[in-house]
Specification:
The protein is built from 3 helices and 6 strands. It is an alpha+beta fold. The protein is globular.
Length: 140
């Protein structure tokens, strides 16, 4: 079992989440709801987790295929349900951007394996009804 610790750090909505290795993520609410905008929104952290989870898979797969990744970044866009509480993610699109000596076909296969098979965050979002689409781009 994993254990995380969240501590409220101001009198509004700011929290710091810490894992058992001491790594910290700061979260807060928007100013329009009474927060101080001092951290990432919790639902945005979920999309960041999707990127981190799939990114680890993809790098691992491409390293095994001896691809030389100079740079790798993701642009993640999401849309939540409207007029619902809770407002779940209904659609997410990821653009995986690679540079270096990376074969586009291998990048596409690695991305597909991650999003469709290995990434637990993607599976969690899909189980909640989210549609996840993606594309890979290689700039040499």
């Amino acid at each position: 079992m994993i254990q995380l610790e969240l501590n409220r750090v101001d009198t509004a909505y700011a929290f710091e989440a810490k894992d058992n290795n001491g790594h910290i993520i700061k979260m807060d609410g928007a100013i329009d709801i009474g927060g101080n905008n001092s951290g990432v929104r919790p639902m945005q952290v979920l999309l960041m987790s999707l990127g981190g989870c799939s990114g680890i898979d993809i790098v691992s797969i491409l390293k095994k295929q001896r691809q030389d990744i100079a740079n790798f970044k993701m642009i993640i866009e999401g849309e939540r349900e409207k007029d619902k509480e809770p407002a779940l993610w209904k659609y997410v699109h990821i653009t995986f951007q690679f540079s270096g000596k990376v074969d586009l076909e291998k990048a596409n296969k690695a991305c597909a394996l991650s999003i469709d098979k290995y990434c637990s965050v993607a599976a969690t979002l899909r189980a909640a009804g989210c549609i996840i689409e993606w594309k890979a781009v290689v700039n040499n």
